[in-house]
Amino acid sequence: MKKIIFLYIIFLSIACESLGVNELTEEMSYYEYVGFGWTNFYQRNYFVALDYFDTAIQINEVEFTNSANVGKAWTYLMMANESLGSSLLESRRDSANFYFNKSSENSLEASELYNECDYEFCCNDCFIKDCEVGKIYSDVSRYLNYEQDALTYENLVINISAFLQDNSDENFYDFNNGKPNTGSFNLNSNSIVFLLAQLHFLNEDLYNSCLILDQNEVCDFSEGCLQNNISNDLIESLLNCLSSFTPIQ
User: In which domain, by residue range, is 112 found?
Assistant: First the structure.
């Protein structure tokens, strides 16, 4: 089961198209640099993405660079996932955590500032949710890797459940919001439901694993989720559901 979750974290589906602004112009705005950062992120050109996010920060055009910082954080997180078993893993994960924390600073002021962005992909507060989700995946990775500073299973459940409570129905989270229409990253509120269900299953809490999937209508269990009667048929259905949500690259 840990292998399933690791694969889920690593192999988030990505595809690409075009940004819609001219990358070859002599000067670009903060928002354009951030946009091209995400474009290269979608294309898995992670070092190029970092260059764009860095440039967005360095041109000093806006007071708050939270959206560029969260872009850097996600880029380092994906680079860390590609570095499993490598000496680069720890430093890249630390960089991701640093920039996730940095993107949390003055978030209200930043969200007000970003209302000035007039590109279609602009979103004034999407970076806040991107930061929360990034921290969730980073925390889960540390937990699965048995790291000393990892959150406990119970604390992970509390944090993930709180996020889902705030990001369902009309507030449904989609990572692609606030990004140029240059690709697709398979990460949304249902992905977080699936992640929580996997954590429950890993910790042999089959009832809550079934319940979170059923309540969020991610999978349909005809036999129902009964706390004191977890049948073999239900376990098989649960495994089929979890397997069906493992993204394929």
Answer: 2-244
Which amino acid belongs to residue 78? M
Task: For helices 126-144 and 153-166, give the axis angle rounded to 10 degrees.
Answer: 160
Give this prediction's pTM: 0.86
pLDDT tier at 182, thresholds 50, 70, 90: confident
Q: Has residue 249 been placed in a domain?
A: no
Examine residue 105 and state whether it is found in any structural domain, yes or no: yes
CA distances from 117 to 33, 40, 72, 113, 189 (A): 12, 20, 20, 8, 26
- Tally of domains within the chain: 1
- 144/22 Cα distance (integer angstroms): 42
With cut-offs at 50, 70 and 90, classify the pLDDT of residue 202.
very high
Q: Based on C-alpha coordinates, what's the Rg of the chain? A: 19
CB atoms within 10 A of CB 73: 27
Q: How far apart are CA 207 and CA 201, in angstroms?
A: 9
- Amino acid found at 220: D
